[in-house]
Amino acid sequence: MHDIGWASGPALLILMPISWKEKQISMVNHATEGVTPHGGRRRNRSITPVNPIKTLMKQNYPLQFVIPAFVVLLIFFFIPTIMNFIYAFTNWSAFGKTIDFNGVRNFVDLFRSGTLMRDLRITLVYAILVAIFQNTFGLILAVFLEEDTRLNRFARVMFFVPVIMSALAVGYIWQAVLKSDGALNQILSFFLGRTIDLAWLGNTTWTIILVAAIHGWKWMGLSMLIFLAGLKTIDSDVLEAASIDGASKSQIFWKIKFPLLAPAFTFNVATSLLGSMNGFDIVQATTAGGPGGSTEILNIFIWRTFGQGLYSQSTTMSLVLFVMVMIIAIPLIIYLRRREAKIL
Amino acid sequence: MTSATYTPDTATQAQSNTTMNKRSKAGTIVHAVLVVLVMLILLGVPFWLLIVTAGKSQAEAIRPTMSLPSHWQLLQNFSTVITDGKMIKAFFGSVIVTVPSVFLALLLGSMASWVLARRATKPMTVVYALSISGLVLPPAVVTVMMLLKIIGLSGTALGMIGVYVGIYLSTVIFFVTGFIRTIPISLEEAARMDGASPMRIFFTIILPLLGPTLATATILVTLYIWNDVFYSLFILSGKMDLLPLNLYNVASAGLYLNNWHLIFAYIILMSLPLLIIFALAQRKIISGITGGAVK
Description:
The structure holds 2 protein chains of 2 kinds. Helices cover about 75% and strands about 0% of the residues of chain A. Chain A contains 17 helices and no strands. Chain A is flat and about 75 Å long. Chain A folds into 2 domains: about 20-105, no CATH class; about 110-344, Orthogonal Bundle (MetI-like fold). Residues about 1-45 of chain A have low confidence and may be disordered. By secondary structure, chain A is mainly α. In chain A, helix 7 (about 115-145) packs across helix 11, helix 12 runs antiparallel to helix 13 and helix 16 packs antiparallel against helix 17. Chain B has a domain at about 90-240: MetI-like (MetI-like fold, Orthogonal Bundle), CATH 1.10.3720. Chain B has helices at about 10-20, 25-55, 60, 75-85, 85-120, 120-130, 140-150, 155-180, 185-195, 200-210, 210-225, 230-235, 245-255, 260-295. In chain B, helix 4 packs across helix 14 and helix 5 (about 85-120) runs parallel beside helix 8 (about 155-180). The longest helix of chain B has about 35 residues, at about 260-295. Chains A and B meet through helix 1, helix 2, helix 4, helix 5 and helix 8 of A and helix 1, helix 2, helix 5, helix 6 and helix 7 of B.
């Protein structure tokens, strides 16, 4: 069981910018160079000639600095994760007095009832939709508001307001906008000249798209800022050269600007996918998983069954989420990093 | 907002703008109109609805429409939610949980990052990888509640703080380690030759250099923790008042009665602390996020 947690670790190294690894090596060399004059102190401590660098590193960068953080991580992150792997295979609930192992029964039950595959599918669809909406909105806004005019700067600040608001609050506001007797239908009725009373959040097929769009709306300001930061790093000489060579505006954007946005793209796609796979607030506030379970992402299920006292079921789903994120996110981040390396 | 400062950065930008943008005057006006229009549709509608509904009476607010209230009772609704939603208690609850969580995550995270960035041994690389695994992996929210029950921290601020620090340490370590790797080691060497202890080197040389990165991490982590409701629902199980938790309770009861005016009054009040901070420091916050997140 433990292996899974540990094996995932090194894979995450790919989150490191590629240039770091070389830097680290040169840093160690540099450290030893700088320190050799102080060999006197070193000789007293070490016996073998291989160790001095190591001992010195240990002395200069003591483990005590890592320990407090690691202890907190251990207690509040790693141990619960390991427990998650154990309790998913038990009959833990609010109703039983004892907790016994029951093998893969929870998984089989969830699979048989169809909930497992349905919620997995919904979570995946939701995450992809959110990533598309959030980053498309964000990129359009970034390009649209790229110039540093006063109005654009004001607009950037305003588009960041949803980011600092509570996601739960955002969800309730949009629920009111989209209610069948809410603001949107009122506005549509006004412009179309006839009464519109669509239940925007009551459709088992389309509502999930709207909820994902709301999630995208809430976070688009952050994506916009990250893309803007990326756009500002692009060398103006390159753009000038391209326009002198007769490149059109759309060519400049797709052939030069967009590829050079690769680091911002990685950050935005990764955070939006991860954030929405682990989402809860917006779905809970708009539909609470309905209608008919059509927007029930994994965390909604986990909270619902937890509230019903079916702890082993929610633990099982929590494990499913964990594995799903691992399977999807890690290869994706590797791919995006490679793409960056190829371009830059 | 006023751009009186003349830095080399803005200078090159201005130059590039003059060479790159051959936009006509009409184009500028069209663009400005579009910006206003997009803002009105995307932001104006929801925020207008939020404010007018929060000022309505219950009878008027049953249907959340764009119309103005026949008479404003915003303050009256505010005082109702402050008492019914236990907002004062919830505000202090949120402060008591958020401030130590952010502080601890930043302090412990940067201390660990320094050593993790400098020591490049195999075991340390593994420790680093584990430390940032929380960036990607979702926390085991059900079993963490059980663990807290076992160690007697369930439903307490301390338990909640521990969970938040555990979740967001990864973010801090990721940002800060990346930044420390760009700090030349020679800066430390001088102090080390003068016999400064690691503790001293960290707090007097490294920590002050971390300013911009820590600012980015502070903003993001504060946003996440202050607005979180998912983890606190599990950990606190109603034993503490936090602003988002109480919104959840007010809304769960209020939606049933169609009390949109109370839900929205609560949302306005609850968003004020961060909105005020943002209004005062928006320049720094925006440049902080853009500066630290993408290098």
